[in-house]
Design goal:
heterodimer, A: 700 residues, mainly beta, GMP Synthetase, Chain A, domain 3, 3 domains, 11 helices, 12% helix, B: 230 residues, alpha+beta, YmcC-like fold, 12-stranded antiparallel beta sheet, 24% helix, 48% strand
């Protein structure tokens, strides 16, 4: 700031509060007690806005439903639900509490038109024990801007009251457990349901419905609820774009409560990434006016390199970027950077290019920027300095610059490059609080002491120790799995390993040939298994397809979190071949085929939707030669995972986030050893499929 | 003060909770957020003190402020956002050809081409670039031209808004800019597209913009600019 009157500035400083919250989002549909798009207890034909991620808690008397839902595309949505029935022993002696996890899928086959209603087909709890299973077709029509009317037909639970017959035959009991209950879908008695939704004002909505769920399990079998009436009604209150509350009269006897947290991964809570503006590109004098400035003679000066590197490092430190290496000729510079903070690769590249424009003598026309991840050059972005200068203030400069740069394989580190003595070897450590959840409301908090020793580029020694401070988990149960207990003793590791050495590994990352990357990790790979893990990945920088292979030899660790291997006497060789494919628009698919930890052979398919800001929501399923019976209640391994980046919530530049993997049932089949920094994810950010979606941030 | 003590204690406890270490790859977002909260708390306490105790020092008059700024001898742009209640005096951080970039103390920038806003940075919902009219174009009422605003939209993907614009000359007006009056031509630029419209106002003195009210983005809205010191 160039003004001298500091008091003036202090009193009138323009704050960052200039950024404001985004406008209230128009909701396509509202959520019901089950965390699915719908009325009160019934579903509707609506969908949420694309990519909506919601967390819902619904209480129906002694039943609590906690649900995570994701609108995976405009038409497809999925939910993962934890359900708890209290007073389970009211009539039948046994456990006081029953819990169940369920997965739903919904597909909107018809979008609402001028005359046509929105029509959705849904499968609720379609892989579980069937306590919450139902299928439905629901249609919703909007009249004016306040009234919505829904009518539908349900099977399973939603066909249990007021049935009109069995159009597609009888409904057989669920068998086997945990696999898609395709034999049951749309079988048995069908029953109609209906309801209305009336928007009183921007905040308040009235809902009323006729329910086709007889609550046979809760009323007739377990005596938890008196279902006196099929009619439910109540009010919902929308507070800002992100929260919604509901209170209802249910079935003539119960009070229902709902709370929803509704998030839009596509829009930052702060409206855009905040943080200081970049420095302007430094203009070179015109060649005609000052030809001497373009003289390349400076390269022969012995001290030029260290001075340039130091000046560059100083400028980039402000953006959390470290300079690994600098190599130059009179006309070209290659800088290898490590981006520690900025969440968008493109922005880190833009900041580096701007810094180079200030530091490098005028004769240097070509900037080669190589982002380094775990010591490997992930890619090489080549920018002409004159393009950078010409486009800084040009309209649509992001697209114009993208057309003029190239993204290629990083290649080897130039032989004549100048490294930074301060970066290797380097010891880093941190002590942080950690929240470990096994379900939304169950888990522990503790402290994690982590340390990393960067020996040389690509050679890393690292480890972490975790100590619990408080936990609300149940005591460790005994696994009844008939397979080697490679995962199902997890609760024992949690209980007995406190404190526990989570990881202690030596890793070597390399880029042995063009488009080929490798990793070898040795040591205590994760809390349950230790050994050696090796991986090779083939991924051209601009390819949607990548191929990989992994080979591991691991021994199962003791549950006390120490260094021993006495408890299990279990070791195994596992390995996979993998194909990764970027379908575009943020959809990533992965197929792994190989041998899993329990010695089972099979394949894992996973699909994730990733957002440029770091949000990630995905689902996976593994089918192996383990029989559904041997696997346990779940039938086969499957689940969902998500990551919420802090930068999305806070607007600040940070690469950290909160992630979770949830499985309806866990078994020992289809389990894979966990290894930090597998290659594909760490490199993708700086390949074209990672750089291009938010390329515009190169000018940020 | 008991309250400020409590704020400090809470901040210290929270700082301990968010962890420590020598891994300085970036500022801890929690620490920054808590720091900001603590600062706000302290500021509130200070404000309360000021209310209850001595009256705050009398604000300087516009003429006095102008005097101070002129003494500094550097160009100054007064930027204010009425909807957000924010105002600041900005100095030049970069001048290249006909583009001048003004920077706030906390690092937000506004780039203008001969006074017409073409970029902002650090506001959150920034104007990333723009195809904007020249002052000469603004002074030709009735002729229509295209204006394009480029933003980072959903999930930081590049988006644009294209408008068809026309200007009208409202007339000669006398405007007050921090205690000094200037005679300027008031020009209104009306930009329309099927989904909405934007109206920018300029007060042009000769061939340069003395004062303006220009649209930045959907979330930021309009910002007022006054060229206080040339």
């Amino acid at each position: 700031m160039q003004l001298s009157s500091r008091s003036l500035l202090a009193s009138l400083a323009l704050g960052t509060a200039l950024s404001s919250a985004p406008a209230l989002a128009e909701m396509s549909g509202s959520l019901n007690l089950n965390g699915a798009t719908g009325l009160i207890d019934m579903p509707s034909g609506d969908a949420q806005d694309d990519a909506t991620f919601s967390f819902s808690m619904g209480v129906v008397g002694p039943i609590t439903r906690t649900t995570l839902s994701f609108q995976a595309s405009e038409r497809l949505s999925a939910s993962f639900r934890f359900q708890t029935w209290r007073d389970w022993d009211t009539v039948i002696p046994g456990d006081e509490k029953e819990t169940d996890r369920s997965i739903d899928l919904r597909y909107q086959v018809l979008k609402e038109g001028r005359i046509a209603p929105a029509v959705t087909i849904g499968l609720q709890d379609f892989t579980g024990k069937g306590q919450f299973s139902s299928e439905y077709v629901a249609a919703t029509k909007t009249f004016g801007d306040k009234l919505k009317v829904t009518a539908g037909l349900g099977w399973g639970r939603l066909g249990s009251y007021g049935g009109i017959g069995t159009p597609f035959g009888d409904r057989e009991p669920v068998d086997p457990l945990g696999t898609p209950n395709a034999d049951q879908w749309f079988q048995g008695e069908a029953a109609p349901f209906a309801g209305v939704e009336y928007k009183i004002n921007d905040n308040w909505t009235f809902k009323g419905e006729y329910s086709s769920d007889a609550y046979l399990l809760e009323d007739d079998t377990r005596g938890l609820i008196e279902r006196d009436s099929p009619f439910n009604f109540g009010f919902e209150y929308q507070r800002g774009p992100n929260t919604r509350f509901g209170i209802y009269s249910l079935y003539g006897s119960e009070v229902g409560l709902a709370m929803h947290v509704i998030l839009d991964p596509k829009s930052r809570v702060t409206g855009g990434v905040v943080g200081a503006a970049p420095v302007s590109v430094k203009a070179r004098p015109a060649r005609a006016a000052d030809p001497e400035a373009y003289d390349g003679g400076w390269v022969t000066q012995a001290d030029a390199g260290p001075i340039l590197r130091e000046n560059l490092a100083k400028r980039l430190a402000a953006d959390g970027i470290a300079v690994e290496n600098l190599a130059y000729t009179a006309t070209t510079v290659q800088v290898r950077i490590r981006n520690g903070r900025i969440d968008a690769g493109s922005q880190a590249i833009g900041r580096t290019a701007r810094a180079l424009s200030h530091v490098m003598p005028a004769s240097v026309e070509v900037f080669e920027i190589v982002p380094v991840v775990n010591g490997i050059g992930a890619s090489k972005i080549t920018i002409r300095r004159s393009d950078l200068e010409a486009l800084e203030y040009t309209a649509d400069n992001a697209s114009l610059l993208r057309d003029r740069i190239t993204v290629t394989d990083a290649g080897p580190t130039p032989a004549y490059s100048l490294g930074d003595e301060d970066l290797y070897p380097k010891f880093r450590w941190s002590l942080k609080p950690v929240l470990r959840l096994s379900e939304p409301m169950e888990g522990d908090v503790g402290l994690r002491l982590a340390a990393t020793y960067d020996i040389a580029p690509g050679l890393v020694l690292s480890g972490s120790i975790y100590k619990q401070l408080a936990s609300n988990r149940d005591a460790a149960g005994v696994s009844t799995s008939t397979l080697p207990h490679v995962r199902t003793d997890g609760s024992r590791y949690t209980e007995f390993g406190d404190p526990a050495l989570e990881r202690l590994t030596f890793a070597w990352y390399a880029h042995p040939a063009e488009n080929v990357y490798s990793r070898v990790t040795v040591g205590y790979l994760e809390r349950m298994h230790a050994g050696v893990s090796g991986e090779v990945l083939w991924k051209p920088v601009d390819s949607q397809l990548a191929l990989g292979a992994e080979l591991n030899y691991t021994k199962q660790r003791d549950t006390d979190g120490g260094l021993g291997f006495d408890e299990y006497d279990y070791d195994i060789v596992t390995g996979y071949v993998s194909a990764y494919y970027d379908f575009g628009n943020g959809y990533l698919g992965q197929l792994d085929v190989g041998r899993y930890l329990a010695g089972d052979v099979g394949a894992t398919i996973s699909l994730d939707r990733v957002f440029a800001n770091g949000w990630r929501v995905g689902a996976f399923a593994t089918v192996t030669d383990v029989s559904a019976g041997d696997f346990g209640d779940g039938g086969f391994d499957k689940g969902i995972r998500f990551t919420i980046p802090f930068n999305w919530a806070l607007g600040t530049e940070t690469r950290r986030g909160f992630g979770m993997t949830l499985r309806p049932e866990s078994g020992d089949g289809g389990a894979r050893v966990e290894v930090n920094d597998r290659l594909y994810e760490s490199l993708r950010e700086y390949h074209t499929d990672g750089l291009d979606p938010d390329w515009g941030r190169v000018w940020r | 003060m008991r309250l400020s003590g409590r704020v400090a204690t809470a901040a210290a406890v929270l700082a301990l909770l968010v962890g420590c270490g020598n891994d300085k790859s970036g500022p801890n977002p929690m620490v920054s957020a808590i720091g900001a909260m603590a600062k706000q708390g302290v500021a509130k306490v200070k404000a309360k003190k000021a209310e209850g105790g001595q009256p705050a020092t009398k604000a300087a008059t516009p003429a006095e402020l102008r005097g101070q700024l002129e003494a500094a001898g550097k160009p100054v742009l007064l930027v204010s956002s009425k909807t957000l209640g924010q105002t600041g005096f900005l100095g030049i951080s970069d001048a290249k050809g006909d583009v001048v970039t003004w920077r706030t103390p906390d690092g937000a920038t506004f780039s203008q081409r001969n006074g017409v806003l073409i970029q902002t940075r650090g506001l959150g919902a920034d104007l990333m670039s723009a195809q904007a009219p020249s002052v000469g174009q603004l002074m030709q009422p009735g002729t229509s031209y295209q204006r394009i605003y480029y933003f980072l939209g959903d999930d930081d993907q590049g988006t644009r808004r294209t408008y068809d614009c026309k200007t009208t000359i409202v007339g000669k007006e006398s405007i007050d800019v921090l205690g000094r009056s200037f005679g300027a031509t008031h020009v209104t630029e009306l930009c329309e597209r099927p989904l909405g419209k934007v109206t920018n106002d300029y007060w042009i003195e000769g061939s340069s913009i003395r004062q303006s009210r220009q649209w930045v983005s959907g979330a930021i809205g309009y910002i007022d600019f006054q060229r206080v010191i040339d």
